[in-house]
């Protein structure tokens, strides 16, 4: 991948020097995983930082026999950055929702790069604060009706990873169980809400294309309380 394309795809590197980006691209390792394949196991956290060039993944937490999805990440995002600074045991893994293409950079080299490029270091802190704010916002929604929580999830995924199409903003056809987990509602609630949104024409689910289209973002934003 060329430096300009890398910078455009990954906002983290917008402020990094061209020399930093060239160096990272020269040491990055490429990975391809099919859907449903474990990308990062519980005991592998802290070994590298992973950048999603294409596809969708989910971060899961294990608690006894229960497995819950904590986050859904798409093209242009990254994961593993906090674990390189925190050596505590992990009870989470990352699984490919779709086929996914990743770039990884070893923890040691990534930390060295952060120390060498203060702009990259500052940008990393900004994005980590942004994630914290997003987590706080989800916590503030905990007492809201299920529809508001789920539509907030859909809108956020569209804003972060969606791509324009003739049918509206396109996101991956994420399983209802994962949408329910991330939205902190039940699968039954998620199923009913998605069916209602689809019947009203506000979203369009296309299983054959593995896509959900957010057909009426204005209406969805209104439901979510975002505008």
Automatic annotation (TrEMBL):
SMART domains: cNMP. It holds the Pfam family cNMP_binding. Residues 12-131 form the Cyclic nucleotide-binding domain. One of its GO terms (cellular component) is cytosol. One of its GO terms (molecular function) is DNA-binding transcription factor activity. InterPro entries: cNMP-bd_dom, cNMP-bd_dom_sf, Env_Response_Regulators, RmlC-like_jellyroll, WH-like_DNA-bd_sf, WH_DNA-bd_sf. It comes from the Bacteria. Gene3D superfamilies: Jelly Rolls, Winged helix-like DNA-binding domain superfamily/Winged helix DNA-binding domain. This is Crp/Fnr family transcriptional regulator.
């Amino acid at each position: 991948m060329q430096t300009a394309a890398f910078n455009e795809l990954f906002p983290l590197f917008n402020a990094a020097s061209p020399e930093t980006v060239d160096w990272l691209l020269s040491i990055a390792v490429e990975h391809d995983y099919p859907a449903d394949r474990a990308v990062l196991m519980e005991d592998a956290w802290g070994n590298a930082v992973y950048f999603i060039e294409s596809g969708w993944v989910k971060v899961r937490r294990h608690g006894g026999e229960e497995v819950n999805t904590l986050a859904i990440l798409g093209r242009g995002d990254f994961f593993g950055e906090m674990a390189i600074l925190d050596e505590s045991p992990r009870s989470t893994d990352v699984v490919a929702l779709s086929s996914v293409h990743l770039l990884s950079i070893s923890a040691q080299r990534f930390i060295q790069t952060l120390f060498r490029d203060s702009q990259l270091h500052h940008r990393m802190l900004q994005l980590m604060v942004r994630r914290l704010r997003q987590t706080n916002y989800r916590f503030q929604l905990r007492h809201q009706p299920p529809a508001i929580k789920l539509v907030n999830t859909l809108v956020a995924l569209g804003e972060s990873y969606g791509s324009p199409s003739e049918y509206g903003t396109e996101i991956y056809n994420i399983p209802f169980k994962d949408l329910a987990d991330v939205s902190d509602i039940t699968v039954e609630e998620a199923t009913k809400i998605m069916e209602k949104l689809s019947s009203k024409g506000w979203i369009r689910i296309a299983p054959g294309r593995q896509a959900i289209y957010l057909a009426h973002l204005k209406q969805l934003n209104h439901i979510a309380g975002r505008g």
